[in-house]
Design a protein that fits this description.
Length: 50
């Protein structure tokens, strides 16, 4: 699936807070969070990534 396809599919998720968690280190949490924040910002949403 392309990035544009993911944006269309995840459009409803941009309306609520998203938390990325895992009990183990090195599983890609930061990568997924950064990619999701970038996609949300590109879609015109306000983003806060901590």
């Amino acid at each position: 699936m392309t990035g544009a396809g993911l944006l269309t599919r995840w459009e409803g998720l941009f309306d609520r807070p998203v938390v990325v968690v895992s009990g183990k280190g090195g599983t890609g949490k930061s990568t997924v969070a950064a990619a999701f924040a970038t996609a949300a910002a590109a879609a015109g949403r306000r983003v806060l990534l901590v």
